[in-house]
Amino acid sequence: MSTSVPxxxxxxxxIPATLAGLAEPVLSITDTAIVGNIPGDGLxxxxxxxxxxxxxxxxxxxxxxxxxxxxxxxxxxxxxxxLAEVRNLPAQAIFFNICLSLLIxxxxxxxxxxxxxxxxxSGKILAYCISYYGIRVWGFPLxxxxxxxxxxxxxxxxxxxxxxxxxxxxxANIGLDFAFVYGISGLIPPMHLEGAAWASLLxxxxxxxxxxxxxxxxxxxxxxxxxxxxxELGRLALMxxxxxxxxxxxxxxxxxxxxxxxxxxxxxxxxxxxxxxxxLFAAFFIDGYAAAGNSIGGRLLGAxxxxxxxxxxxxxxxxxxxxxxxLMGLGFLLYMPLGRLFSQDPGVLQAFGAIxxxxxxxxxxxxxxxxxxxxxxxxxxxxYLRNVLLSATFLGFVPLLYLGKYLGWGLYGIWxxxxxxMCIRGAALVxxxxxxxxxxxxxx
Length: 444
Fold this sequence. Notes:
This protein is mainly α.
């Protein structure tokens, strides 16, 4: 029997998921805006935040894929009415993921200078990168833990508690940023860039603590790993591995973009930092509906409700597309004021204004790619997602990026390559969904 998914159910999951998803870009945007206005070394500090933020995002996105795998399996078992069979799985997955994150953390702290030299950072910018990273990196395992707990709640069709975790963390980060960066007279001396790093670290700790408390109090899922290993751990590991490879390909694009923007000069990496933060902000805004598609799609697949799944995809795309059009309008309306939120440097603002229209015009295609990305994760189609990212990155983004560099397109070339990257991703996912699920829907 087909189950119609009403719009209010989609909105009920998507709106809290949107607010939850905005936490990470809000952390980055808050750091960027406050640090970019530090008196004296604001430009160098902004560049350091952009470089370190890109590297940390790469680590988080690469290892944070367990969240999507956990969510997919839990939602599918929920749809099949067999949730009790996977209650011990998340704790085992989180345990192994945190151990891996600590291994990577300790392996990077000894080669920090070499890492950021690869991003073309040098002089004062390199020194600031090392100082900022040395503090922020300790929040890496905390963020992975929080992401995993959010994935559990998402699989249970609950996006309210992830929203609560994220909003508290974001508000804490904003307050701590102002207190630590600029100081509080008679209480806290101004710590400038290091203050922003401490603010992010403490807010990540707050989020992890709240996540653990909510999971223990609101669900029957344990955080204590038990043995023997769960039979689904192998499938979860394979899903995570495919998403790991996918995330590496994704971050190759992001890191190469930062590297090439840094090579153009401080004002260009400053402009690129503003643009990529706004791009990510829009992505996480649209991602709320992708999260709804993820949660509901996995449940419908578990129930073998293909007609409901097809209807879900159409409704989610309609909702997410509407959001992207609103964001486009706001982007053009607030074109330069958005740039001035992050920096007052005339060179940075001029470079930003020259390329921001490309970011805005790409939003509709971005929404298609992000929305189907979420649906495919809920369906467990991680292998196909991996192949799409590999193709889009190495057959689309990288060749166009270096063609633009050869032709002297500067930041234009970087953002044209990003646009092509998203077009390939969106088109490939739409084709696969129609090819696989349209025949199943017609038979239902």
